[in-house]
């Protein structure tokens, strides 16, 4: 198959492809579209940036166009599951683009936004639903969605969907689906243990692997620079002074690490934005939109963006921290050199990360070339870097707090809060709803001093409540603002899965 017209796709789909300027399919599309059009289950593996979304979207649109059937109320005919909000948005946009000439409906649901609007969109039923697992289950639990009419199930980034962060939600979702359905799994990597799990959900599948599993994109030039932890920030700032770097995506392992990198870049005069699981959905959308339109050339992200960003002209990817999951490296550097372009991936590696580098080279079956420091760059010594970091941590803020920390135990507007996500009633302290001192019905908080860092200690004797460790207030840097198992304040069920991924050692 050398052209899309050779597949026998419906004319409205071909018309949309022609308008978008697409004529020749990529290898994954050429091998996956025919069996998918026949209704076969399929597991497709291909490098990032090779058009996997179209490989399942086009045959799905073709099949729906041939069957004049309405979606069930509060239901859908096609369910596409995605691990991140950004990727879910992009998949929904692709279905809208390819199906613009078809009378089909599609919508996307994910956490971090008001659920009521999503419930209203689902009420009459939709042909194609793109969702993150957590919010999907929320909608099912609220009886706003039924999955009894699903004809096709798609897992995009199937390896992550089948990993521990999502597998329990996925098992529950699959039990709600009809036994007779078509299942399509796509990913760039598929570890053996995950592939074995995928076989449980596929019936006599067609295996399509156009490249060896976990192969990096051919047009990405890779480099690794060995630098101690304290030198990474200065090295990144120096590299980004090069005007030839048009658009760069910087990856860190943690959410707080991403924020620290942004502060360091802004201090050195380089504007940057961060995107991670602690950001609200509007913040994430604004940061991504600014990165796409070029008004912000540097985007710092955690691995939630490794699979959810498809931006043209990303010239560089910088791994500020090497990932501790080697498959994530393949997805990260795949954000550049997309659609036939060239790109450069630079990784910083300290002494503790050398084991991660060996795992990456073993997975990709290639050595990452070592690059020296830039000729005009003098790295700070470990002692100098430690002093700079220490001065940043000790820089006084209001009432002796660290930079960026809110006043002790207060929300905007002055309401006290003793715990990030307490369940108190309005007008009561966030910590378990206990009344505050000085308010009607309140009781003095004697014997519970607060120090200058905004930490609260329980000093009551053992005969009372057991003594507990200090809990940092909301906003303190370098510590999680969410207790394990709590749902983010933004209300999204999807946050449960993302939160697990970013709190775990595998994030």
UniProtKB/TrEMBL annotation:
Biased composition (Gly residues): 411-441
Residue ranges of the motif Q motif: 2-30
UniProt GO MF annotations: ATP binding; hydrolase activity; nucleic acid binding; RNA helicase activity
Annotated Helicase ATP-binding domain residues: 33-208
Alphabetical list of Pfam families matching this protein: DEAD (PF00270), Helicase_C (PF00271)
GO CC, one annotated term: cytosol
Signal sequence, renumbered to the chain: none
Basic and acidic residues bias (residue ranges): 445-460, 468-477
DEAD-box RNA helicase Q domain boundaries: 2-30
Domain Helicase C-terminal intervals: 219-381
Protein name (database record): DEAD-box ATP-dependent RNA helicase RhpA
Species assigned in the record: Methylobacterium soli
């Amino acid at each position: 198959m050398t052209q899309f017209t050779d597949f026998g796709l419906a004319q409205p789909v071909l018309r949309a492809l022609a308008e978008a300027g697409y004529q020749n399919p990529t290898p994954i599309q050429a091998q996956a579209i025919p069996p998918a059009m026949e209704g076969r289950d399929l597991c497709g593996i291909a490098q990032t940036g090779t058009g996997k979304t179209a490989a399942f979207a086009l045959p799905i649109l073709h099949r729906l166009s041939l069957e004049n059937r309405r979606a069930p109320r509060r239901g859908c005919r096609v369910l596409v599951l995605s691990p991140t909000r950004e990727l879910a948005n992009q998949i929904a946009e692709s279905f809208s683009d390819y199906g613009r000439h078809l009378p089909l409906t599609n919508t996307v649901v994910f956490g971090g936004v008001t659920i009521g609007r999503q419930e209203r969109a689902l009420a009459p039923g939709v042909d194609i639903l793109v969702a993150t697992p957590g919010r999907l289950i929320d909608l099912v639990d609220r009886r706003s969605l039924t999955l009894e009419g699903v004809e096709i199930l798609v897992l995009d980034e199937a390896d992550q969907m089948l990993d521990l962060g999502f597998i329990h939600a996925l098992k529950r979702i699959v039990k709600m689906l009809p036994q007779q359905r078509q299942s399509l799994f796509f990913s760039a990597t598929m570890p053996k243990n995950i592939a074995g799990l995928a076989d449980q959900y596929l019936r006599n599948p067609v295996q399509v692997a156009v490249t060896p599993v976990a192969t990096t994109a051919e047009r990405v030039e890779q480099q690794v620079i060995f630098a101690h932890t304290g030198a990474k920030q200065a090295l990144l700032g120096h590299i980004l002074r090069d005007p030839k770097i048009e658009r760069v995506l910087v990856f860190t392992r943690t959410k707080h690490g991403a924020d620290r990198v942004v502060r360091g870049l802004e201090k050195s005069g380089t504007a940057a934005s961060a995107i991670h699981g602690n950001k609200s959905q509007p913040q994430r959308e604004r940061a991504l939109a600014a990165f796409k339109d070029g008004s912000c050339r540097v985007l710092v992200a955690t691995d939630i963006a490794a699979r959810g960003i498809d931006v043209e002209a990303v010239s560089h990817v910088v791994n500020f921290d090497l990932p501790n999951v080697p498959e994530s490296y393949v997805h990260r550097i795949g954000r550049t050199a997309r659609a036939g372009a060239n790109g450069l991936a630079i990784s910083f590696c300290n002494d503790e990360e050398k084991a991660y580098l060996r795992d990456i080279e073993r997975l990709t079956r290639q050595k990452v070339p070592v690059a020296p420091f830039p000729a005009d760059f003098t790295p700070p010594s470990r002692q100098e870097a430690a002093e700079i970091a220490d001065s940043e941590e000790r820089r006084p803020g209001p009432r002796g707090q660290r930079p960026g920390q809110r006043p002790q135990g207060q929300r905007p507007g002055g309401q006290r809060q003793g715990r990030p996500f307490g369940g108190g009633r309005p007008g009561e302290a966030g910590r378990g709803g206990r009344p505050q001192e000085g308010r009607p019905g309140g009781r003095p908080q004697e014997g519970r001093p607060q120090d200058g860092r905004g930490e609260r200690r329980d000093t009551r004797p053992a005969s009372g409540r057991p003594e507990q460790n200090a809990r940092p207030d909301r906003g303190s840097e370098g510590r999680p603002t969410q207790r394990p198992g709590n749902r983010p304040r933004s209300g999204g069920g999807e946050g449960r899965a993302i939160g697990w991924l970013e709190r775990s050692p595998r994030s």
